[in-house]
């Protein structure tokens, strides 16, 4: 079992013929992902060779779905074209759109999120590393060789910290790791993933990674308190960040006491979540919680 992405997922890559799309399509294929096609109207009808496999290029997402049965799209298009790309995928009926692109204007993100939600398309991102179900499928840019299949679920705002926790806990492994992105407007949230992991019979423990800014982690803490029975361990980045200054992600800005790492930590701990002060300590808390369950 896994959430959102399995070995049966059929993946289209919007922007596959660009430099980033080519590089990460090759990596996704190496991880076992069933990449069934790319999308580029100017190169429709061609095939791109990736080692021992030729991947067809379609003129639209709809053509790709009709020809292959694709149900996932990974978006690598430039920021100026991301809104149109996501709307095209939603119009075609794609079930999951993973938007890797960073630097998308907030008003574009607001528009395509609302449009996709109304049509039943789940968005992950934008400005995210995607998601991976180790040993099954990888949709995005997460390195596939730093962990193995296991029974930990991971949801994270930060791509880099996603990779670090995957590596720290590589000997135990993960059911699915989801990088939701750190922009002010994102599709899939911490709460969405918490609910999915709670319902996944093959996830025993959930790791939540947050960062300063906004109140997503406080809302996640309330959800854990009311709805999650599995153990949850968290890490919050940004304890040393100065107030009023944007740090890294566009959403990571603190105003007064709102959105501080300390406030998030206190909210999570009040909900019974173990919060590590470093990624390594967080991994140690995971190990301790797992031992308590055996």
UniProtKB/TrEMBL annotation:
It is an enzyme of class 6 (ligase). InterPro entries: Cit_synth/succinyl-CoA_lig_AS (IPR017440), Citrt_syn/SCS-alpha_CS (IPR033847), CoA-bd (IPR003781), CoA_lig_alpha (IPR005810), NAD(P)-bd_dom_sf (IPR036291), SUCC_ACL_C (IPR005811), Succinyl-CoA_synth-like (IPR016102). CoA binds at residues 17-20, 43, 100-102. Residues 4-104 form the CoA-binding domain. PANTHER family: SUCCINATE--COA LIGASE [ADP_GDP-FORMING] SUBUNIT ALPHA, MITOCHONDRIAL (PTHR11117:SF2), SUCCINYL-COA LIGASE SUBUNIT ALPHA (PTHR11117). The active site is at residue 249. The gene is sucD. Substrate binds at residue 163. SMART domains: CoA_binding. Succinyl-CoA synthetase functions in the citric acid cycle (TCA), coupling the hydrolysis of succinyl-CoA to the synthesis of either ATP or GTP and thus represents the only step of substrate-level phosphorylation in the TCA. The alpha subunit of the enzyme binds the substrates coenzyme A and phosphate, while succinate binding and nucleotide specificity is provided by the beta subunit. One of its GO terms (biological process) is tricarboxylic acid cycle. This is Succinate--CoA ligase [ADP-forming] subunit alpha. Belongs to the succinate/malate CoA ligase alpha subunit family.
């Amino acid at each position: 079992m896994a959430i959102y992405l399995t070995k049966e997922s059929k993946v289209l890559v919007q922007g596959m013929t660009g430099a980033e799309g080519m590089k990460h399509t090759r990596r996704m294929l190496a991880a076992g992902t069933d990449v069934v096609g790319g999308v580029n109207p100017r190169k429709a009808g061609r095939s791109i060779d990736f080692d021992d496999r030729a991947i067809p290029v379609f003129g639209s997402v709809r053509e790709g779905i009709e020809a292959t049965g694709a149900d996932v799209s990974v978006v690598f298009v430039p920021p100026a074209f991301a809104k149109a790309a996501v709307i095209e995928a939603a119009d075609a009926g794609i079930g999951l759109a993973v938007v890797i692109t960073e630097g998308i204007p907030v008003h574009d993100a607001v528009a395509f999120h609302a449009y996709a939600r109304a049509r039943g398309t789940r968005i992950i991102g934008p400005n995210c590393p995607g998601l991976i179900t180790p040993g099954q499928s990888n949709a995005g840019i997460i390195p596939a060789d730093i962990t193995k299949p296991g029974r930990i679920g991971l949801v994270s705002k930060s791509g880099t910290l996603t990779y670090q926790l995957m590596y720290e806990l590589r000997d135990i492994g993960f059911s699915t790791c989801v990088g939701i992105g750190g922009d002010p407007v994102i599709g899939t949230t911490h709460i969405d993933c918490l609910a999915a992991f709670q319902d996944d019979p093959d996830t025993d423990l959930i790791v939540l990674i947050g960062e300063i800014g906004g109140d997503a982690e406080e809302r996640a803490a309330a959800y854990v308190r009311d709805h999650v029975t599995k153990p949850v361990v968290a890490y919050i980045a940004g304890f040393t960040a100065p107030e009023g200054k944007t740090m890294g992600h566009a959403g990571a800005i603190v105003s007064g006491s709102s959105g501080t790492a300390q406030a998030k930590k206190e909210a999570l701990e009040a909900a019974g979540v173990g919060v590590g002060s470093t990624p390594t300590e967080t991994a140690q808390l995971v190990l301790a919680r797992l031992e308590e369950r055996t």
